[in-house]
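User: Fold this; tokens only.

Assistant: Input:
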Amino acid sequence: DMTDRIRDMLHTKEQLLLDVSHELRTPLTRMKVALEFLEDSQAKQSIQADMQEMEKMVTEILETARMQHKYENLKKQPTNLVGLLKEVLPEFENQPPGIELVEFPSEVMAAVDSEKIKTVFENVINNAIKYSQPDSGPIRIFYKSHKSYAVIRIVDQGIGIPQEELSHIFEPFYRVDKSRAKDTGGYGLGLSLCKTIMEAHDGKIEVQSRPEEGTIVSLFFPSGKS
């Protein structure tokens, strides 16, 4: 019937996307090596930026597919989320507008796959930096306990997201700021994977935003679960 045909079409589309993504990895690696032998130029930088974006998209497709396959690849261990966050922050040192940890305890424990959650932190902070102006207020990261969750909030004072776009930002490769996508990668790149990872941990990710005021991304981790 129609339902089965639609399901088959979607499955075929997903499988094709996965196959193409796998096949892209080898030529991308070869191109990266070849680029190293070119002299520095604006053209080289532009090609490198395009390749990094392609790599990120390929990684997102493959990681999302892996995570959705019954979450079998999770390696959950009791982990200090504060320590994990502090491992990620040096990547963003000296990038304006800066980052502040606000009202953080020394320890927030949750059962997580450290590498997967580091990916979430990196994606969310990277988006916050891209969409902040160099002279805007610093990105602030807060912690609060909410019911049975440990909540980490990343707050920026950047360009914000229009209300009509908010419901789409967790779609794979959806870009809010299409006019600036070449420069910034588009707000939302990576958020689909973040959502999959958080849900695999029985947590969730929520986004609140106002144009010209900024964005709040809240990460909810079940506390005290193993």
